[in-house]
Amino acid sequence: MKKWIMLSSLLLAAMLLAAGCGGGKNNKEESSASPSAAAGGAAKAVTIDATNFKFEPGEIKVKQGEEVSITLKNSQGNHALKVEGYDKEVKGNATVTFVADKTGEFKFICSIFCGKGHEEMIGKLIVE
Ligand SMILES: [Cu+2]
Questions:
Q1: 31 and 50 belong to one structural domain
Q2: pLDDT for 87-118, tens place per residue?
Q3: Ligand 1: distance of its center to the CA of 117 in Å?
Q4: Which residues constitute the domain of residue 83?
Protein backbone atom coordinates (compact mmCIF):
# COMPACT_ATOMS: atom_id res chain seq x y z
CA MET A 1 0.00 0.00 0.00
CA LYS A 2 2.78 2.40 1.00
CA LYS A 3 4.69 1.52 -2.12
CA TRP A 4 1.68 2.31 -4.26
CA ILE A 5 1.26 5.74 -2.70
CA MET A 6 4.91 6.56 -3.21
CA LEU A 7 4.79 5.43 -6.80
CA SER A 8 1.68 7.43 -7.60
CA SER A 9 3.02 10.57 -5.93
CA LEU A 10 6.22 10.19 -7.93
CA LEU A 11 4.17 9.89 -11.09
CA LEU A 12 2.14 12.91 -10.12
CA ALA A 13 5.29 14.94 -9.45
CA ALA A 14 6.71 13.94 -12.83
CA MET A 15 3.49 14.94 -14.55
CA LEU A 16 3.42 18.29 -12.79
CA LEU A 17 7.02 18.94 -13.76
CA ALA A 18 6.33 18.10 -17.37
CA ALA A 19 3.21 20.25 -17.44
CA GLY A 20 5.01 23.13 -15.75
CA CYS A 21 7.81 23.03 -18.26
CA GLY A 22 5.51 22.89 -21.23
CA GLY A 23 3.31 25.66 -19.89
CA GLY A 24 6.26 27.94 -19.25
CA LYS A 25 7.56 27.46 -22.73
CA ASN A 26 4.19 28.20 -24.30
CA ASN A 27 3.77 31.36 -22.29
CA LYS A 28 7.14 32.63 -23.37
CA GLU A 29 6.40 31.95 -27.01
CA GLU A 30 3.04 33.66 -26.78
CA SER A 31 4.24 36.84 -25.13
CA SER A 32 7.10 37.39 -27.53
CA ALA A 33 5.64 36.20 -30.80
CA SER A 34 1.87 36.45 -30.77
CA PRO A 35 1.29 40.16 -31.48
CA SER A 36 3.39 40.15 -34.62
CA ALA A 37 2.35 36.64 -35.59
CA ALA A 38 -1.32 37.60 -35.50
CA ALA A 39 -0.64 40.50 -37.83
CA GLY A 40 1.40 38.36 -40.18
CA GLY A 41 4.79 39.60 -39.05
CA ALA A 42 4.16 43.32 -38.66
CA ALA A 43 1.99 45.67 -36.68
CA LYS A 44 -1.00 47.18 -38.37
CA ALA A 45 0.23 50.68 -39.06
CA VAL A 46 -2.23 53.48 -39.66
CA THR A 47 -1.47 57.11 -40.30
CA ILE A 48 -4.23 59.47 -39.33
CA ASP A 49 -4.23 62.91 -40.76
CA ALA A 50 -5.55 65.58 -38.41
CA THR A 51 -6.84 68.87 -39.74
CA ASN A 52 -9.25 71.53 -38.44
CA PHE A 53 -11.45 69.72 -37.49
CA LYS A 54 -11.33 66.19 -38.75
CA PHE A 55 -9.47 62.89 -38.50
CA GLU A 56 -8.78 61.17 -41.80
CA PRO A 57 -9.46 58.25 -41.89
CA GLY A 58 -12.06 58.47 -39.16
CA GLU A 59 -12.29 54.75 -38.76
CA ILE A 60 -9.69 52.08 -38.02
CA LYS A 61 -10.56 48.41 -38.21
CA VAL A 62 -8.34 45.71 -36.71
CA LYS A 63 -8.56 42.13 -35.50
CA GLN A 64 -8.44 41.24 -31.84
CA GLY A 65 -4.89 40.53 -30.72
CA GLU A 66 -3.40 42.55 -33.53
CA GLU A 67 -0.76 45.11 -32.75
CA VAL A 68 -1.89 48.55 -33.83
CA SER A 69 0.46 51.38 -34.56
CA ILE A 70 -1.22 54.76 -34.91
CA THR A 71 0.73 57.69 -36.25
CA LEU A 72 -0.96 61.04 -35.91
CA LYS A 73 0.01 63.61 -38.48
CA ASN A 74 -0.95 67.18 -37.77
CA SER A 75 -1.46 68.61 -41.24
CA GLN A 76 -3.34 71.60 -39.90
CA GLY A 77 -3.64 72.86 -36.36
CA ASN A 78 -2.47 71.15 -33.21
CA HIS A 79 -4.24 67.94 -32.27
CA ALA A 80 -3.84 64.80 -30.26
CA LEU A 81 -5.71 61.54 -30.51
CA LYS A 82 -7.02 59.63 -27.54
CA VAL A 83 -8.57 56.17 -27.81
CA GLU A 84 -11.24 55.84 -25.16
CA GLY A 85 -11.50 52.43 -23.55
CA TYR A 86 -7.88 51.68 -24.34
CA ASP A 87 -6.60 54.77 -22.62
CA LYS A 88 -4.01 55.34 -25.35
CA GLU A 89 -3.04 58.76 -26.52
CA VAL A 90 -0.80 60.13 -29.22
CA LYS A 91 0.11 63.78 -29.70
CA GLY A 92 0.66 65.22 -33.13
CA ASN A 93 3.44 63.84 -35.29
CA ALA A 94 4.13 60.88 -33.04
CA THR A 95 3.20 57.19 -32.95
CA VAL A 96 1.52 55.04 -30.34
CA THR A 97 1.63 51.24 -30.50
CA PHE A 98 -0.51 48.82 -28.54
CA VAL A 99 -2.14 45.41 -28.78
CA ALA A 100 -5.86 45.53 -29.51
CA ASP A 101 -6.86 42.88 -26.97
CA LYS A 102 -10.45 43.99 -26.36
CA THR A 103 -13.16 43.71 -28.98
CA GLY A 104 -15.74 46.36 -29.59
CA GLU A 105 -16.02 49.88 -30.90
CA PHE A 106 -13.88 52.50 -29.23
CA LYS A 107 -14.27 56.18 -29.81
CA PHE A 108 -11.19 58.23 -30.43
CA ILE A 109 -11.24 61.94 -29.89
CA CYS A 110 -8.99 64.94 -30.09
CA SER A 111 -7.59 65.54 -26.62
CA ILE A 112 -6.13 68.99 -27.19
CA PHE A 113 -8.58 71.85 -27.34
CA CYS A 114 -8.03 73.06 -30.87
CA GLY A 115 -10.82 75.50 -31.53
CA LYS A 116 -14.41 75.77 -32.62
CA GLY A 117 -14.69 72.33 -34.19
CA HIS A 118 -12.83 70.46 -31.46
CA GLU A 119 -15.92 68.51 -30.34
CA GLU A 120 -16.43 67.26 -33.89
CA MET A 121 -13.11 65.48 -34.02
CA ILE A 122 -14.35 61.99 -33.33
CA GLY A 123 -13.31 58.72 -34.89
CA LYS A 124 -13.79 55.05 -34.24
CA LEU A 125 -11.50 52.10 -33.60
CA ILE A 126 -13.22 48.84 -34.36
CA VAL A 127 -11.69 45.68 -32.92
CA GLU A 128 -13.23 42.47 -34.26
CU1 LIG B 1 -9.07 69.30 -30.62
A1: no
A2: 999 999 999 999 999 999 999 999 999 999 99
A3: 7
A4: 44-127
